[in-house]
Amino acid sequence: MQDQPNPFGTPGENPSTPSYGPPIPAPTGDAYFNNGVNDSGTGATAVLPDELKGFNWGACLMSWIWSIAHNTWIGLLTFVFGIIMMVVLGFKGNEWAWQNRKWDSVEQFRETQRVWTKWGIGLTIVGIVFYGLFFSMIMAMVRNSPRTTTTTTTTFQPAPAAPQ
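Predicted structure:
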């Protein structure tokens, strides 16, 4: 029987290459990103995966509510800067959400943002319809209000003469 080499090396030996074979590759799949590590929720150091880059309609349309849910407190500036901050949230929303909240997978992130987008679009449509109906009711009330015109005639009368 021929001696088999010890796969772990001999005691005290420091081989330049491991004797146990090539390193095991990092797991692949949806749960691993950025060099095999899901770094979501780690703050500004987290790197947004390329497939998640793009405009976030949920962040834009749901602004401050979306910001609270995603721990993106800068989104509360919507109360100060309005539509400008909403657009900023749209462009930076995916990145900030990835940095500020832990996600299990890219697919979970996508699905969550999809739900925010659907709610944002739905509530925007409801808001437009509501304000349209409100405006129509106000216009109908103005149109149907009685038109009373009062004419005021003033005649000039000289002031009484001062007693002498």
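Summary: Confidence is low (pLDDT under 50) at residues 26-31.
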